[in-house]
Amino acid sequence: MRWLLQGSVSFSTSLCKCRKGFDLMQKCGLVNVKLKWVKDRELDAVVAREKHLKAVCNLVSVISSSPDSKSPIFHLNPHRGQLGLPQDFKLPAFIRRYPNIFVEHLYRDSAGTRVPCFGLTPEAVHLHREEA
């Protein structure tokens, strides 16, 4: 823009500079590609049947990221927004629906109250390590 106000550069030179910039932009454009969608009926059936599959996967990653692969329920509640569960749906009840993935332990907090603590089954830990 300075060259236009100062007038020290000729118009043809400035037009050439603009054209080169335009050419570079065109070379970096997007390409439309059409791909044939491949259907996997078994996977589609599992996803349709398990409505909360994403929530379970997120919980597995949260629990596995804790140091001892166990998390008390009050550490899991802040992640409720990532799970996409309805507000009236209690998190411990949701986790108890999947006993082949999650194991429940009792944990005593600082006041001595028993609090549910959830960990992963050995099979779930093995699968999570394979996927990572």
UniProtKB/TrEMBL annotation:
InterPro entries: PORR_domain, PORR_fam
UniProt domain PORR: residue ranges: 38-131
Domain of life: Eukaryota
Entries under Pfam families matching the protein: PORR
GO MF terms, alphabetically ordered: RNA binding
Name of the molecule in the record: PORR domain-containing protein
